[in-house]
Amino acid sequence: MLNVLFIEDDAIETMKLNRTVSKLQLKHKITEAKNGEEAINFLRSDEVLPDIILLDLNMPKMSGIEFLGILKEDPVLKYLPTIVLTTSENRADLLECYRIGIAGYVIKPLKYEDYEVKLESVFTYWENNELVKA
């Protein structure tokens, strides 16, 4: 079971993720944050750190790239694998995210069935990955 921090401002995207986790009968614990500020506050609280972070790029208050900059400057949080889950096919965004130090960049497909397949592969990979926590 993975502890997942899902950072997404769009309620429909949040419903899609929860529906996919439920449909695939995954037992992962999903913690939701509506923006980068909320996510940073959660990560710096006394809560258990997530195993992975799923991050949208286009959010109010703090963009996904701004969030990544803060995350990667933190001596403890910088080790959390962060997977960008976005509609952005902007190559500059992709390159900047990898430069900062993400673990993956997944483009959200329009069709729900395709979304489900992509999410299943992301979760399968991280379930089998040896996670290192600071």
Characteristic key phrases:
single chain, 134 residues, alpha/beta, five-stranded parallel sheet, 5 helices, globular
How would you characterize the overall build of this protein?
With 134 residues, this protein is an alpha/beta fold. It has five helices and five strands. Strand 4, helix 4 and strand 5 (104-107) form a beta-alpha-beta unit. The longest helix has 17 residues, at 112-128. The radius of gyration is 14 Å and the shape is globular.
Radius of gyration computed on alpha carbons: 14 Å
Shape: globular
Main sheet strand line-up? 2-1-3-4-5
- Count of strand segments: 5
How much strand?
Answer: 15-25%
List strands and helices in order, with pairings.
Blueprint: E1 3-7, H1 11-23, E2 29-33, H2 36-43, E3 52-55, H3 64-73, E4 82-86, H4 91-100, E5 104-107, H5 112-128
Parallel strand pairs: 1-2, 1-3, 3-4, 4-5
Compose a concise summary of this entry.
This protein is of the alpha/beta class. It contains 5 helices and 5 strands, in the order βαβαβαβαβα.
